[in-house]
Design a protein that fits this description.
The protein is mainly alpha-helical. It is built from 15 helices and two strands. A two-stranded antiparallel ribbon has the order 1-2.
């Protein structure tokens, strides 16, 4: 009896607790409501702090990007030339000053475009990154060429593209072999010939496409229809060159990637990582490309005035000075790798850039000129084509045995000096350069 009575008391107590539950819930809900109100009040008070924190993080991110992109190169001292060039154009300073400032401003921009392209390649993967490098590696030369084409300055266009090929094969490669040989006198410098052979074959194919229009013009003689047929042959050859370049990209990135990457991967000491984000790199790349386009327009528009003022031929400025500016990044990088006895990378930089100009940029300009109804052909005249032919042949002979020493660099560099001296004295009177007229008529023998 006592036990059942105690059970009844327990059940009564539980029922009483159940009766008290609603009021308890109300108390709990009331406390939660007060907590929510207090937390919302605190959040409203802390909103300015959150906004200021976000702004601080954005400012910190921007400063970090400025540190990497603008101050991350030794050529940063030349960046002030960019606003000075814009100011010189706005206040109508002398055109030679505008040309000089624009040329100085293009030097760090060309190097930074290569850096930003590499940063984007870290996020896009090897295939897309390789395509990006293949198309943007010579962005400065391509933009200058397109502006020259737009302004019908065919002689400047052809000179600048020819000079870029000569600069990469003789100046960049020559100084790299010279410095690498002097820095590694007690070491045998060897490289894989396979990559060099592929680039040499493409350069020889491009040389054939340049020689045929020249030989065709001399075979037919000067006549009313000679230039028309030469132009048609040049356009057909340009299509062949673009097809060959596409095949080369597929060969490099897909079927035989090991020929172009195994040397670098075997020598890398640690894996490199991107230092800025994808969208930051993309935004910087777009902005710098716009500035390069502006400065390129200044350069193309003032090159004749600078030539007259300084007493230097247009051919020398276009073939020697402009390519040195455009190849500043390749030149510095190739020499650094040669000092470290990484000749495969040095050869890839110099030969790859020359191949891109010869097999992609030159025929692309012919096709774009075709669309714009501008008479752009592959007849670079006798002196220019002869210089290109001897340059490619000497480079191919230099790289045929798979070994290197400083004497090879000396020979290539001296070849560049001789060609530079040739175009220093090769002055064409301005009244013989007719803008928009066929280039071959200007340099006809």
């Amino acid at each position: 009896m006592d036990y059942s009575h105690s059970q009844q008391e327990v059940s009564d107590l539980e029922n009483g607790y159940d009766l008290l539950k609603p009021s308890n819930k109300e108390v709990l809900s009331g406390s939660r409501t007060l907590q929510n109100v207090s937390s919302s009040i605190m959040r409203k008070k802390s909103d300015p702090l959150l906004v200021s924190s976000v702004r601080f993080q954005m400012l910190r991110h921007l400063l970090a990007n400025l540190q990497e992109v603008i101050l991350g190169t030794k050529l940063a001292v030349l960046f002030p030339a960019i606003p000075l060039a814009i100011a010189a154009d706005f206040y109508k300073f002398g055109r030679p000053w505008l040309f000089a400032l624009s040329l100085l401003g293009l030097t760090p921009l060309a190097e930074r475009v290569s850096f930003l392209t590499e940063q984007i390649a870290y996020y896009t993967g090897p295939t897309v990154g390789g395509l990006l490098n293949a198309t943007c590696g010579n962005a400065t030369e391509l933009i200058i060429a397109l502006f020259a084409l737009y302004q019908n300055k065919i002689h400047v266009l052809k000179y600048s593209l020819l000079g870029s090929i000569l600069s990469n094969l003789l100046l960049v490669l020559g100084t790299s072999l010279l410095c690498g040989g002097l820095a590694n006198l007690k070491k045998e410098q060897r490289y894989d010939r396979k990559q060099a052979d592929v680039n040499s074959l493409l350069l020889l194919l491009g040389l054939l496409c340049h020689i045929l229009p020249l030989m065709f013009r001399y075979a037919l003689g000067e006549g009313p229809f000679t230039f028309h047929y030469t132009l048609e042959l040049s356009r057909a050859s340009s299509i062949v060159m673009l097809v060959a370049y596409v095949a080369y990209i597929f060969f490099q990135l897909k079927t035989h990637r090991q020929l172009f990457e195994s040397q670098e991967e075997g020598e890398e000491e640690e894996e490199e990582k991107a230092v800025i984000g994808f969208w930051s790199a993309f935004s910087w790349l777009v902005g710098m490309t716009v500035i390069i386009a502006l400065l390129s327009e200044y350069v193309v528009g003032t090159i004749e005035a600078a030539s007259d003022s300084w007493g230097i031929s247009v051919s020398f400025i276009s073939i020697i000075l402009l390519p040195i500016v455009g190849n500043a990044a390749e030149h510095a990088g190739s020499i650094i790798f040669a000092f470290k006895n990484k000749l495969d990378i040095s050869l890839g930089v110099a030969l790859g850039s020359a191949t891109q100009i010869s097999m992609f940029v030159v025929p692309l300009c012919v096709v774009v000129g075709w669309i714009m109804h501008v008479h752009m052909d592959l007849d670079f005249s006798l002196l220019e084509t002869g210089s290109l032919a001897f340059t490619i042949i000497i480079t191919a002979f230099t790289l045929q045995d798979g070994t290197s020493h400083y004497m090879k660099g000396v020979v290539l560099f001296l070849c560049y000096v001789v060609i530079s001296a040739c175009f220093w004295v090769h002055k064409i009177p301005q009244n013989q350069i007719t803008i928009g007229k066929p280039f071959s008529g200007v340099f006809a023998a």
